[in-house]
Amino acid sequence: MTGRIALVTGASRGIGREIARNLSASGLRVALVARDRAQLDDTAAACAGPTLVIPADLTSTSAVETAFAEVEAVWGPAEVLVANAGAAHSARLERTSDEDWQRIIDINLTAPFRCVRRAVPAMRAAKWGRIVVVASTAAHVGEPYIAAYTASKHGVLGLVRSAAAELARDGVTVNAVCPGYVDTPMTDATVANIVATTGRTEDQAREALARKQPIGRLITPAEVADAVSFCVRSEAVTGQSIKVDGGAVQ
Fold first, then answer.
1. Which are the catalytic amino acids?
2. Considering only the top CATH level, what class is 5-180+221-242?
3. Average pLDDT over residues 22-27
4. Tens digits of residue pLDDT in 100-145
5. Sheet strand arrangement including 5-9
6. Which of 69, 78, 87, 165 has the most CB atoms at less than 10 Å from its CB?
């Protein structure tokens, strides 16, 4: 993998930062894409090898093209794509507005689709590529109050499976990594929402999320990054949904 070019979206914090650090430690050059430049600079400082910082809002129709073109201008085509950027939303069905729905679909489903579509031609030409989408256990099961999020993750898993079937003979693997509740800023926001809507304390809310994993704790970002790294290294694993959830979904 030494010297190969990876593009990681949502690389500014949490799971994305850990994925970038992991790939960099494995010898890859890593392009870091997210909205917040200061946080991307922090990620770059934590990486062991060459990085390229690309601030971008991937919900913009032109941002994906701009990000990939910048990588190509500096290093060449992206050989590894990790589509990690995502957002969560929690509300009753009848309180989920069209705007809420569209925002979650845009970042969790449409943006990964655009990234995959943009990455594929160069990967096909090279007869080598690795695509990993960070989805969620919500790609497999439904839970109350997260209809938009669950729909987006079910959709992106369908994208992964279809793309894997199409690209298998081109030397390109496509997989999804599906974490449970991970100890990240996104989960902090979920905890805050539980506190605000239920009256539980922060500790009680966090413990409730930890108990959703049979191992009795939140997943760490490093554990998710290890699963992504496995997908990048493997030649024979494609079209799979690798759950990193402490046994929650079997």
1. 149
2. alpha beta
3. 98
4. 999 999 999 999 999 999 999 999 999 999 999 999 999 999 999 9
5. 51-55, 29-34, 5-9, 80-83, 129-134, 172-179, 241-244
6. 78
